[in-house]
Queue: 2 jobs
Job 1
Amino acid sequence: MIGEGDSKEAKIYLIIAFIIILAVFFAVVFSGNQFKQAYVHHDFLDEKWLENLDERDSVSYFFGLEKWGSLIYELDCNYTTYLIITTIKTIVMMDEKELKDEIEETVEKALKLGITLDNNTKISGERMLKNGHKTMYIVYNGNDTSKNSYEQVRVIGEVWNCGNSGTSIISLGFSQISDNSNNNSKINTTYWEKIIGDEGGTFGTKGFQREDGLIYNVVCH
């Protein structure tokens, strides 16, 4: 017969075994849940493009099993221009529908910044980045009403899944293309081209066909 002392000892061994199994489980889960923040390599940032280190942000949920982080690259000139790269790691990677929803939500954030978008100019499609990922994007023309002068802008929302890092990437690019504050009605797409340009010239040939486009060169794995 098993005595009372033996029974208690068996329970203690079971508890210890359970704790060990639980520790091993979480070790395996967390080791496979390394979070890699997508970014633009400094080789593609010229002297005017800088990361705003004060705006770096990251959050984790469910004991670190789900995470997100964002980086903001800004252009140091009279034209308000920036690129936000957000990386999301979830327990189950987003599917195509969720990615499309993220594009819409990402671009809608621009509306909260005093931006009005022209739905008639909306362009959507897919392209390949230099890292081999196929993305989905939407592009709008719009106007910035947050300044004293009425400025024309362009906005892109672009998303993709990175199977290598187990993350979903959301890019929001914004560029002012006019400068009416100086009574200059000429359209300047130079900075916009830098954000969205690629080798294939997806968004146009002259100026847009380039190897150093920022989103095109995002590093995510």
Job 2
Amino acid sequence: MPTSDELLELAERCAQKLDLDGRLRNIPSFSDAEEQCEDEYDELLQAIHEDEVFAPVDIEHQETLVERIAAALPEDKRTMIVELADNHARHIWLQQEGAYHLGLAVGRRVRLRREF
């Protein structure tokens, strides 16, 4: 598993790719930032996945499992598993957005402290 310093170096490479020049009125959303530094972000995720706790995620496999479970359920219960999977995906996206914005806020605070 990479050290915290190594993960921060990878995160910095992502941050350096973000288009933050000029007078921004809004900080880019997580999806915009992810798009701007896609390769570097993938490298960061791969480094995190090296830890057995954060095993790689196979979205296609997850969707196949949901479909198989749904097919095994009675007709009136099938939508429950799909709703559960959709809710879980929204929860993860929410967590990513929160982590992204918290990271930005901490970065801004650290930057402001360095300027003094």
